[in-house]
Amino acid sequence: MQLNIFLIIFTLLIIKPVVNAQFVSVIGIDQLPLVFVLVAVFAMVVSTIYSKALSTNSLRKVTSATLYVSVFCLLGFGLLLHFGIATNITLYALYIGVAIFGVLATSQFWIMANLVFDAREAKRLFSFIGAGPIVGGVAGGYVASVVASYIEGTNLLFLGAFLLCFCIPLNRVIWKKHIQQLTPIQSKKRFSDFGDHPLWLIRKSKHLTYLALVIGLSVLISKLVEFQFSSIASAQFTDPDELTSFFGFWFSTFNVVSLLIQLFLTRKIVGTYGVGTSLFALPGGVLLGSLILLFSPMLWAAIFTKLWEVSVKQSINKSATELLSLPIPAAIKSQTKSFIDVFVDLAATGIAGLFLMFLVNGLDLSVRWVSVLTIVIVAIWVWVAIKVRHEYVNSFKLKLTQADKEAKKALPDFNNVSVLEGLKRALASGSENQILYVLDKVREIPDKRMFDNVVELLGHSSARIREKALACLYFLEQTVEQPQLEQLLHDVDMEVRYKAFAQLLRQTKQQRLTIINEYLQHSDPKVSGAALVGLSEDARNNPELQKLLKIEGRIQDKLSFLKLAETEEDRFLYQVMVLRAIGNANILALYNEIETALYHENKRITKEAIKAAGLTMSPYFVPKIIAFLEFKDTRPVAQEALLFYGEGIIKELQTYAQEETSRLELIWRLPEVLEKIDSANAVKALFGFLDTPDVALRLEALRSINAIQRDFPHLKIKKEDIVERVMEESNLYKNMLGALYQERQLLPNEISEEIQAARTNLVNILERRLDGTLERIFRLIGLRYPPEDVITAYNGIRSVNEHVRLNSVEFLDNLLEPALKKTLIPIAEGALFESISSETIQGLQVKIPDERVYFSMLLEGRDPKLKMAVFRLIEALGNKSYASLVKPLIQSKNEKVRKEAEKVYAALLA
């Protein structure tokens, strides 16, 4: 690939000084704007023919045909100039032909490069391959400069045709060995299924539109700079051969500088600052040069401006613009990129010619006024570069979020013409989930205009909706007709009954005690139970009302009826009403009833007891409720119970986490509770968990911080120390990766089945822990960057689809700041454990630790499973020197770890 582009540019730089010098000397500098316009006119014809050829032939055939035609044209033009036949017409045709060849041949080469290399390979190799054309430019220009002193310049056209012949077999080898071996979508380049003209495809895509504008504006500026350079140079050198030698020397010198930039700066700049930022290197230097030319139109200023434009354009800017086309689908890219590179390039040349004809030929202004036009275009260029960077990042993001986008199509959109009308329509005809969603919104922002719609839901078939609608009535502060509430007191759902009586109490002003007594003594246990629970809630913070209504005595009465209940269901209903009433009224003397029920054999009663314990909001019940977070079936109700405490639970959970007797399995569940609390103190508590040595707790805390950031965006999260924490987790990742690599290297060499089984177990656990560390890293990044972008990238990196992973890495490469990028991109590239190799380890600069070192590291952590795996391997190895590593763990507070340490230590000593 590098040799191919070297020969193309070598040929171009041999013939270009000849063409420029001959044209300026024979035709005149004043005709240069006209030939720019003619280049654009003929470009339209060529682009149409080229596009039609691509629609009926493969890209490989069209590329080969371009080389054959170019060779024959060079030979023909060389003969015409050598024999002096129609010299002026030949020079016009030659200038136009060389201009078209320059952009068409290089465009075809970079399309091949995009097919051969994926996004990550391109990022690494384009800077290396890009050195080929620069070296070719250096060699070609110097050859032209030297040879022009000995032979007539026009004879160099024959040398160019000879060199170009070598590109034909080289091109064939690249296609056969490196493109046809790829997937069908990469190798098959027929476009019969794409009927749209490339111009229409570009118009439909913002990315392609901005890419075309960036390339077009860079060409436009290039031609303006070229005109100033050629104009000032032609005034200094009047002899054609001297001018050829001058152009040849400086074109090569420009390429020498470009080569140095390509070798030492391009990869570093593009890799560190990203594709988008790299685009600003070219306009910055051109702006400076144009300002100098505006005030001092001297040869040195023209050389400086042209030097910057050529050297940066062929190095940093070329790599950046080629990378910009990577997210474009292969089929569309092949159809449009040549069109952009050829048509847009040459059309911009024509526009430059028109501008110059207007300024120089029409208004008869000096070359310094061209600088004013250049400065204006540079400003437009910068604006477009900002836009194309945004679209470039979005293109990768779109590929990664396509599935999420499809899933979200099913979600209701309440932001249409009228939010209020949209909410009302959803309540009237939405699905259960949509209605529940809207009712939550009504609670957050109560609007009395929604009252009638909410009341209608009291007769809905879904008990959850009826319950939520009753809860909304409290926030709407409106009155419901009493018969309707009395009917709901007989509802089949227990929660609906409780909520109905609570609403009845809230809106009853007269004969309140009469109604209370009437329902408390109701013959139906469902109704009397609802009355007792509703009343206890209403009297919670009113000791006088509790005494007046004898709440505790009434609860005791209900307790006495438990054994007399006729059916199991009635007994359950009595039990629930008693527990709920005790919790609501917070009656300390009856706590034992809740505590006994917590361990009832009936799981339904246990869950109700957990709720009741939470309703008391007593610190006494906190550790007892936390214990139920361990089990999947009781975890949701335990979380709900802890949230009853409100913000006060935060301090209790922190205290529990710090107690030495608390079990790790339960501490890991605490962040999931904190993430549901809309409080800055909850965020502070979660960040406190990040400072613990327990990696599992850190991961859970990060997941919860991300959830808080998503659900409560108004809560401010301090991001100053995020980078430092990312570095810490990255170092841990590398250390564990080194341990994993070492274990994998040792595994195949083990003869003992016991040792092999122990190593396999440790490898499996290390893989899972690495996965958790990687997630922690990305969750930390999600606190500094848009979390939806980061999590999408993380999911892409963990994908089994290689192309998705590559797109994810490229997306991150453009998202992250340099400090994070340098650390995380290598980690992201080697994220799949199956691909860990010595190259991956070297790329991450991971030091392979001695077995004793990483055993010590793993045993010092707070991960009991890793410790147990290391114990098992140490015991299997039987190495007595490891006894000193095991001995400190005999004092561990974790019972399992302590007993295993005692066992292994004794075995080693024996």
Automatic annotation (TrEMBL):
> What Gene3D superfamilies does the record point to?
Leucine-rich Repeat Variant
Record SUPFAM superfamilies: ARM repeat, MFS general substrate transporter
Q: Which UniProt keywords apply?
A: Membrane, Transmembrane, Transmembrane helix
Entry's transmembrane regions: 31-50, 62-85, 91-113, 125-151, 157-175, 208-225, 245-265, 277-303, 342-360, 367-386
> What InterPro entries does the record point to?
ARM-like (IPR011989), ARM-type_fold (IPR016024), MFS_trans_sf (IPR036259)
Q: What is this protein called?
A: ADP,ATP carrier protein
